[in-house]
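Dissemination and training. As part of the outreach component of the grant, students in the summer workshop were shown how a complex can be specified as a set of sequence lines and then modelled as a single object. The example used during the hands-on session is reproduced here so that future cohorts can follow it. Participants entered these lines:
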Amino acid sequence: MTREFMIRPDPSAPNLSTAVTGRDQDGNPVETRVVTEKPLTLFLNRQEIVTMMTIGDHPDLLAVGYLLNQNMLKRGDTISAIDHDEDLGVIVVRTPAETNYEAKLQKKVRTSGCAQGTVFGDVIDSFEGVKLASNSRLKTSWLYALTRKINTAPSLYLEAGAIHGCVLCEEDRPLVYMEDVGRHNAVDKVAGWMFRENEPADNKIFYTTGRLTSEMVIKTVMMGIPILVSRSGFTAWGVELARKSGLTLIGRARGKRFIVLSGEERIEFDADTGYEPDEDHKHRRKGSRDD
Amino acid sequence: MTREFMIRPDPSAPNLSTAVTGRDQDGNPVETRVVTEKPLTLFLNRQEIVTMMTIGDHPDLLAVGYLLNQNMLKRGDTISAIDHDEDLGVIVVRTPAETNYEAKLQKKVRTSGCAQGTVFGDVIDSFEGVKLASNSRLKTSWLYALTRKINTAPSLYLEAGAIHGCVLCEEDRPLVYMEDVGRHNAVDKVAGWMFRENEPADNKIFYTTGRLTSEMVIKTVMMGIPILVSRSGFTAWGVELARKSGLTLIGRARGKRFIVLSGEERIEFDADTGYEPDEDHKHRRKGSRDD
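and obtained this result:
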C-alpha cells in the first residue's frame, strides 16, 4: 500500500483565503487573494497556554501538536477530549488527570510567577533525551522527486502567497502537507497528526519551506524524525543542534542543488545530478527568509 | 541635517555569523556562512517574561522593544536600568516601581494561573487606542529609492541568508536597519531604538522583508508608524486591521510594482513607473514566505 498526499492543501476552500481589492503602482484597481488567519486560544485543561494565529483548517491537530512540541504533553499521555468553540476561537485539550506540566507550572507560579522560562528549559531537556534512528535513508533521487511533487501541488502558497508549508514524507512520497501563516503552526499540525494516527517517525523525511533555525531543528528532533530538508538556509545553532542530535540536515535545496551540514551518512547519492532538470520557472518557489 | 543609515547591519562582525562545512549534491565538500543565534531570557524587574532567539547585536533595544510591543511597558514609563549578563544570556529591564503589567499579572496569577492570554487582549486594546497621523506622505519615488538603497546595503542576509530585516525610514532615506533570525525581533529592536532616542513616529515609513500579517500590522500601529511596506504578501486579517487603524499598507513591492491595500490616500504617485529600471539581478531579494 503506497500512501501519498493523505492530507494536502485545499486552496479552493472558501474559509482559507479571501479576495481583497486595492491599487497597483499605476493607481489602477487590482484584486488579489490573501490568506485568512484567526486567533485560536489554547487551553490544557483549565490552564490557558497561548493564543496563536492560524488559518484554522486543523485546530485540533494544531492544539495537540503545539502541546507536544512544547513538551507540555508527552507521547504517552491520554487525551480524553478536544473541545473547540469556533465562535470564541478557543480550543481545550483535556486529559484524565492533571499533566506533569500543569503540576510544575502550579509549583513555579507559587514561587516566582509566570513560568515562561520553564518551557524553554523543558524543551531543551526533552530534546537532549531523543535518540534518532540511525538506519533511515534518503536517496537523492527521492529528494528530487519530493521537491518536484511538493512544488507542483496546488497550495494556498501558489494561490495567495504569504504562507508556510511543511510536508511529512516517506521515501519519494509526500504524505501530509500542512500550511499555515506561522511556520511553527504547520509543523505542530504535522506533530498532532502523527500523534493522532500513532504514526512512526523513524522512516520519515520532513520537508519545510522555512529556514533551518534552532527551533525548527528542535521540533523535528522532538518529533523523532531523523531527516530534515528545506529550500532555505541555516542558522549556526540549528546546525550545531542537528549535529549534536545526529539529525540529517539538508538546506538550500533548489532544483538539483543542496547543502548537507549534518548527518550525511544517511544520504545515498544515487541521482545523477548532471541530468536532473532545473526547476521550471512556473513552479519555482522563492527562497524563504522566514521565521 | 539629513540622517541616513544611522544603524545598519555589519556582516563582517565576527559574532554574528560563522563558517560551517558540509557537502553539496555531488558529495563535494563545501564551506558556507550561517548566522549565529543565541537564547536571550528577558526579565521585567523580577518577572521572567520570555526566552528569545537572537543574533545578539542589540540586546538592550530588543528587550525594551519587546516589552513595548507586548504592551508590558508603556511609552511614558521610566527605565531605571538594563542589566545584561551575556554569559548567562539574561537581560533585566528595571523600572523604579512595579509596572501595571506586573500588577495585572500578579492578580491574574492568583486567580487562574499563567496570564498568556492577557497579553494578547492587552495588545489588541492598545492597538485600538492608537490614532495614526493622517497627513504623512509617501511618494512612490521615495519608495523606489528606499527599496534600492535597502536591497543594496551590505547585510547578513546578502552574506549568510536565513535572516530577516526591517528598516525605519524617513522620506527616501533608510535610518535604522535591523536584522535578526526572528522577524519580530528585528521589529522590536527598532521599537527599542525609537524609545531610547525619543524618536517621533508620525513621519516614518516602516519597511520589512516579512509578510504583512496581523502581528506585523499590530506592531507597526502600536509603534505609531503610519506607513508599512513589504516586498512580501498579506494576510486577510492584516489587511483588515490596517484598514481599521488607517495604516497605509503596501505589499508585494518589487522593482517598480506594488499593491496598496489600505491607506492609499497618503500615497503620491509621482514616479514614472514606465522608466524605473527593474531590480538588477545581483541585488534582487527573494520573496519572503516568512513568519
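The mean pLDDT of chain A is 87. Students were then asked to discuss how this feature might be tested experimentally.
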